[in-house]
Amino acid sequence: MEKLLVIGIDGGSFTLLSPLIEQGIMPNLARMMEEGISGELESVCPPVTAPAWSSFITGKNPGQHGIYDFMVKRKDSNEEIPLNSTLREGRAFWDILGEDGNKVLILNIPTTYPPQKVNGVMISDFLTPSGKRDFVYPVNLLDEIENRFGNYPLYFKTPIIVTTPENIEKFLQECRNALHYKFEVARYLRKKEEAPFLLLHIWETDQICHWLWHIFDQTHPEHRKDEAKRFLPEITAYFKALDEEIGKTIHELGEGLNTFVISDHGFGPVYKMVLLNVWLMAEGYLRLKQDPLTRLKYWLWKKGLTPELLFKLYKSMVKRGIRFRSLAPVELLKMLNSGKGRLLSLRDVDWSKTRAYAKMGYGQIFLNLKGREPQGIVEVSESESLRTEIVKKLKDLRDSETGEAIGEGIQVKDELYHGKYFEEAPDITFLPLEKGYLATGGFASNRVITKDWLLKGVHRMKGIFIGKGKAISQAKKITEPRIIDLAPTILYLMGSKIPEDMDGRVLQEALTGDFLKEHPVQFAPVSTEQKIDKREGSEEESAELIERLKGLGYLS
After folding, report:
1. Residue whose C-alpha is closest to residue 90's, from 125, 122, 51
2. Cis peptide before 46 (omega within 30 of 0)
3. What span, in angstroms and rounded, lies between the C-alpha atoms of 287 and 182?
4. Residues 48/265, Cβ–Cβ less than 8 Å
5. For the chain, what are the domain ranges?
6. Contacts of 124 (CB under 8 A, 6+ apart)
7. Angle at 188 (CA atoms; ends 185, 192), nearest 5 degrees
């Protein structure tokens, strides 16, 4: 029986890791790349944690599993709810492994709360509502883990949304503690359960890149030498520790091990936001109601009363040493959340006159289509011409401050998705990420393009794929691997058949010729998957998770 270790470094990017590897800071990854395989791993579109890991789990594109972001639209409503594992369509590859007799350890993969029954152990992720103790299967295992290792680090306590020196110090300490905790638990469970398959996710890398990219990127406009002098050694020490933990785990799992180190997406700097709803409103595609309250909110918004202004004021006061007992960063986010009607939002949209709108997240534009949207007005017969018109205007978009053309990275749904949930996909996805722009929804500013006042780094399409082991090729660069290819490749390595409805393929070029000859790829007909009752969290849980996602930079 094969042994396989998969370590998911959330947001892992060669842009960040390659310099550390070249400097000798991450020798274990360097050895894996020298003696095994490596390449840039293509994410799904948009390259967001929730759809990317869902595609990793199922081997399918979002059109098949139905997850396009952290939020899922309620049927026949514009209202959205936070994602949970019961809302994802498609069998997880680890369920197939379990049915074939392989015990599995699935630790901390995003979108796995609530945990499902597996042949082994599952520990869920940061989407667990506060206070819940049911994020581990089997449930009695959590007490055993915490009695031995202390409280499980699911969340951050530090308000990193405001990057004061004090917050950065505490945040990095939390990252280091969580790193060691999760690897120790993984090794403990591996020894206890003797499972041949171990999947461990490290989330903190993503958050370091979102909030602190400017510290190790000397070209970033917010890079400050004094800040870098103080904190760059600590960030470097974190990645050195990550490499050491990887090496220690590989060593303890012993001979005959195959190892993959992967990421769900890459990372790079962000400089500005493109507020798509502001642009759609300026172009006449999105219209507001004309009732007195909406007109007042619009007037205040035009005068500058925006989340951008309020956050800048709050950040300025915090950096001057002013502390608020009753307005912690999470409370600030609640205040900025215009869903309660305080500031201009999609609640103020006149859907009877609106032809297109954008969701929070990464560049997703939806036509207000009849039969799909609750108050749709766009006829199906005119949807293609409207979509073409919007795409053409986006391609001509320029930054008014610099004159730079930023209309790139535009794709329509037909180019990206297929499957049962195709109709729910965004009609247009706009990702000018390589130029350092994040296109998103909302009315956070009264300008179409504004400085990104929250994040320092955002996702990119290319993540990492590194592998080493007895079945893995040596000293080879792999071109064009995709995240949807990992599930079928893992199943194949573990001796399972590949379901015919998976979109991914076995990455045979990553494997040795001898292994391929001895183990022909086999496929299985699509089987009826185990039915899971779809469920929503309570209103309180949903509200809390939305605020958490905002505070983590996943929702604008």
Report:
1. 51
2. yes
3. 48
4. yes
5. 3-265+459-544, 272-457
6. 85, 108, 112, 113, 114, 115, 135, 136
7. 135
Closest CA to 457 of 254, 213, 161, 291: 213
What tokens appear for 43 in the block?
Answer: 């994410």
- Which of the listed CATH numbers 3.50.50.60, 3.40.720.10, 3.30.460.30, 3.40.50.720 matches domain 3-265+459-544? 3.40.720.10
Q: Are 403 and 321 in contact (CB under 8 A)?
A: no
For the chain, the maximum distance between any two Cα atoms, rounded to a whole number of angstroms, is 74
Structural contact between residues 102 and 494, judged by C-beta atoms closer than 8 angstroms: yes
Pairwise CA distance, residues 61 & 74, whole Å? 20
Q: Tell me the pairing of strands 272-275 and 437-440.
A: parallel
| Angle of CA points 200, 12, 219, to nearest 5° | 155
Which residues, other chains included, contact 241 with Cβ-Cβ below 8 Å and sequence gap of 6+? Answer: 176, 179, 180
* Residue 513 to residue 493: CA distance in whole angstroms: 13
Q: What is the pLDDT of residues 374-383, one digit of tens each?
A: 999 999 999 9
Average of pLDDT values for 63-74?
91
Is residue 13 within 8 A of residue 267, CB to CB? The reply is yes
Place of tokens 């039969």: 371
CA–CA distances in Å: residue 243 to residues 107, 180, 337:
18, 11, 39
Q: What is the DSSP letter of 434?
A: G
Q: pLDDT of 75-127, one tens digit each?
A: 667 678 899 999 999 999 999 999 999 999 999 999 999 999 999 999 999 99
Bond preceding residue 153 cis, omega within 30 of 0: no
Tokens of 176: 């280091």
- Within its chain, how far is the Cα of 510 from the centroid? 25
- Model confidence, pTM: 0.94
Residue 449: which of 220, 278, 214 has the closest Cα?
278
Tokens matching residue 93: 């590859």
Q: Containing H/E element for 208? A: helix 204-216
Quote the mean pLDDT of the chain: 92
Query: Which residues, 6 or more positions from 371, have their beta carbon under 8 angstroms from its beta carbon?
Result: 380
Report the relative pairing of strands 136-137 and 120-123 from DSSP bridges: antiparallel
